[in-house]
Amino acid sequence: MTVRTRFAPSPTGYLHVGGARTALFNWLFARAHGGVFILRVEDTDEARNTEEARQAIFDGMGWLGLDWDEGPGAGGDCGPYFQSERKSIYDTWFAKLQAAGRVYEDGGAWRFRFERKPVTMRDLVCGEVTIDYRDESNTPDMVVRRSDGSYVFHFVNVVDDLEMGITHVIRGEDHLMNTPKHLQLIEALGGTAPQYGHIPLILNPDGSKMSKRDVGAAVGDYPRQGFLPAAVVNFIALLGWSSKTDEEIFDMAGLVERFSLEGVNRAPARFDAEKCKWVNQQHLAKLDAAEFAAKAEVFVREAGLPVPENFAAVAAAVKEKVRLLGEVPAAVDFLLTDTVEYDPEVVAKVAGNSTAAGLLATLADALREQAEPVDAEAAKDALKAVAAAAGVKPGALMFPLRAALSGRAHGPDLGEMIVLLGKDRCAARIQCLSEKLTAPA
RNA sequence: GACCCGUUCGUCUAUCGGUUAGGACUCCAGAUUUUCAUUCUGGCAAGAAGGGUUCGACUCCCUUACGGGUCGCCA
Q1: What's the 3-state SS for A319-382?
Q2: pLDDT tens for residues A248-305?
Q3: Which H helix or E strand runs over A199?
């Protein structure tokens, strides 16, 4: 029997990380078992469904790389994959419930009559859980068909899982108490229940429930911040799942290889934006130079900055310094334009150094006379020569020069900066900073 | 309120009765980079509480506390 899993979102908002992780775990489980992953859109609540939300789900899953074998745009033998188009199927199954005498009318709606007995499930994550349906006050008969003739979630969800041959249902823990209801429905329908695994929810850093408006919640926000899909997938997989090894950085193939439900935790995990960025940095560092440059270029253009001939070299200079692609423009802007924004604090720091002004002047003169440096090492060798001639340690030149060239305290390697800028621009910037020092604002 | 699930460093986690309770993020210190970052090394930091069971409990059982979830003609 081949494994068949599904992700069944309702298009009522943007795809959030909790939903994305549910989709991911179902996808990983299917891929790890050579199974089939299905996308089914649970759009029975006409009033709350929106086209934008539906598109956000498709876009989000596409961006994350969670491709589906059956579902919208992918075909499959169990369609249609939109619940709003499956009314006649539900009618057929509902008739079975009526024939079996398991439903009764109540105010125009139809309720499913639970069997009053303890219901035990063997959850793939939580283990054995029993809910006692003899306690009727805690488990009132549920409505399966509304007075307007439409069907509610519990019914359509169960029917579709049966119709689509779903073998494993991996869903959020918020569905744990729904499962005995579904099991009862399946029994009444004469179907074979899939196996269930309930994964813990994702919480905010303060422990509150993560909802759609919280930081990091919307999957749609990640691309424009410069996260890599593989990094986001890696990070959310780590929220509630462990490979049980010391390894933490995995690409998609690595996750598929290692994923198992045994590694899923029972306690809810809190979302840690810092670690998410760190994971992204690790993935960024693994990109080869050309890939990184191509991705960085998109963000640089987006920021309205020019992309010169030597952009690949510029990108390489910051590749292992940024955590997000979105940080690239601010990290390289001074290498792409002729304007430098001098950080007042940095200027003040240089001004506070009595020898800096003299050194900068010497440096500017030296640069004008020298040949264009061929590489960062040559540039640094030239610096050392200047320092030696001036009778100071090379280290004394570094900060003032960095300040002059970039206007700030942090950035790429100084030698690289000189090569990327060219000696003439370097000399001009030293001149520029020198003027600020002698004529403070 | 009733029912269900859970509880190891601040956070994510490892540990399937015997460990100096390990790793990662963050933070701090040192080294390297005659610069910043990266990197490397080191450090701070944990079994919610109380009872059992056992030669021995983070691990099994019970109670309490705390956290989360569910109790709709939402999904």
Answers
A1: CCCCCCHHHHHHHHHHHHCCCCCCCHHHHHHHHCCCCHHHHHHHHHHHHHHCCCCCCHHHHHHH
A2: 999 999 999 999 999 999 999 999 999 999 999 999 999 999 999 999 999 999 999 9
A3: strand A195-199
Closest nucleotide over all strands to A144 (CA to C1'): B73
| Gap from A277 CA to B12 C1', Å | 13
Closest CA to A203 of A299, A287, A292, A272: A272
How, if at all, do strands A36-39 and A4-7 pair? Answer: parallel
Protein residue minimizing CA–C1' distance to B36 = A410
Does the CB of A175 fall within 7 Å of any strand B atom? yes
Return all residues near A88 (Cβ < 8 A) that are at least 6 apart. none
ipTM of model over 0.95: no
Measured CA A221 to C1' B48 distance, in angstroms: 37
Q: What is the pTM of this model?
A: 0.93
Contact A4, A165 (CB under 8 A): yes
- Distance CA(A258)–CA(A243), nearest Å, equals 6
Rounded Cα–Cα distance for residues A422 and A269 (Å) = 50
HSE-CB of A441 using CA atoms within 13 angstroms: 7
By CB neighbour count within 10 A (0-12 exposed, 13-18 middle, 19+ buried), where does A402 fall? buried
Which nt sits closest to A415, CA to C1'?
A: B35
Owner of token pair 């924004």: A341
pLDDT at residue number A439? 61
CA–CA dist A357, A390 (Å, integer):
13
Query: For chain A, what's the residue count?
Result: 441
Radius of gyration over alpha carbons of chain A, in Å? 30
Q: Answer yes or no: A96 catalytic.
A: no
Q: What is the dihedral of CA A416, A419, A423, A425, to 10 degrees?
A: -80
Which of the following is catalytic: A87, A96, A212, A286? A212
Measured distance CA(A292)–CA(A322) in Å, rounded: 11
Which tokens go with A212?
A: 């759609």
Q: What is the sign of the dihedral through the CA atoms of A213, A216, A220 and A224?
A: positive
CA distances from residue A28 to A1, A75, A134, A138 in whole angstroms, order as listed: 18, 20, 38, 36
Nucleotides of strand B within 7 Å of the protein's CB atoms? 2-8, 10-15, 22-26, 33-39, 67-75
Whether A46 sits with its Cβ under 7 A from any strand B atom: the answer reads no
SS3 A197: strand
